Amino acid sequence: MAAIVKPGDVVPGFEAFDQLATMVAIVRPDGRCLLANSALENVIGLSRRALQRSNAFEWLADAAPLGEHARRVAANLVATSRFDAHLRRHAQHGQGELPVHVILSQIDLGGPGGAGGPGGTRGDAVLLEMIEIEQQTRQDREERVQELVTAHKELVRNLAHEIRNPLGGIRGAAQLLELEIEGRELKEYTRVIVHEADRLQALVDRLLAPHRRAPVVGDVNIHEVCERVRALVLAEFPRGLTVRRDYDISIPEFRGDREQLIQAVLNIVHNAAQALVGRIAAGDARIELRTRVARQVTVGRQRFRLALELHIQDNGPGVPDTVRDRIFQPLVSGREGGSGLGLTLAQTFVQQHQGIIECESAPGRTVFKIVIPLP
């Protein structure tokens, strides 16, 4: 006799589903959810318990194909069925709907040996698997970003070292020349040379900053980092800007360089605040700092069981299309007068923690997501 499995029950024997990077659920033909793995929980943005109390038909923008395919698989008309759909994500977790490829397969539940044991029956549930259509594209993009940042980092470091020595010579020669010449107008020219040399030297120092100091590793609380950044930004923009907090206080501490992470987060939040100047003047500028734990995360080609996600969201005009694909490259800025180094340094600091920064941007909503593996 088949065992009775109710929605919300833990289905024994299927714990390995939590090790999968794809979204997996066991559902009844009528859509009742028996099991949801951690990848599905993370992508939709709802807890496992909430998913198991819901109906799988509610997860998709169009429920009709899922119902039809599930009934066909459950009735053993086909062993496997595939179709494309759009997965609804929780409003605070993602932007719009996520294109997915859906695979429905037969699965045995119950029987004398328990779930999946001998004598199990078909027809009472189906295995639902969903794969992000853009998942491979995103992984390839992450790898390209990491490779580009590494290549640009080496190029900039070598170039900065080559610039430093002649720059010092130019500055010294201008100072000596100022002592020899007479006339206020001529000395003004030498002062311009010295000033511009100092400005370039400051730029070189910023380019070399990530390589000069060895990381100071200690226990890091991401919320202490966020609170420090929040205080700094609100001190600079005391009126017209609201910095909201949505923290998951269960996130554990991890080993890292606290000062580097403060600088990385500050660079992103400060950029957001500067992009919100118009809304700050109108009094409706918003930045949100949101922390979550993600499971089975892949960064580049490496997979991690747990990772921290810090979402930095603003309601500004968005990143210009002309620089969106290059914003993490050095000396690329979407703001007039910007140095183009803030996001490059932020990406470098996060990569030194085995993480990555991603960006989604549209007018009225820009989200930078910092992903850092957790122990």
Structural description of this entry:
- With 375 residues, the protein is α+β, with helices and mostly antiparallel strands.
- It folds into 3 domains: 15-133, PAS domain (Beta-Lactamase); 139-212; 218-373, Histidine kinase-like ATPase, C-terminal domain (Heat Shock Protein 90).
- The protein is built from 9 helices and 12 strands.
- The chain has a 5-stranded antiparallel β-sheet. Strands 7-9-10-12-11 form a 5-stranded mixed β-sheet.
- Helix 4 runs antiparallel to helix 5 and helix 6 (222-236) packs parallel to helix 7 (258-275).
Number of domains: 3
Unreliable stretches: 1-10, 111-122
Overall SS class:
alpha+beta
Tally of contiguous helical segments: 9
Short description:
The chain is an alpha+beta fold and about 375 residues long. The chain contains nine helices and twelve strands. It is elongated.
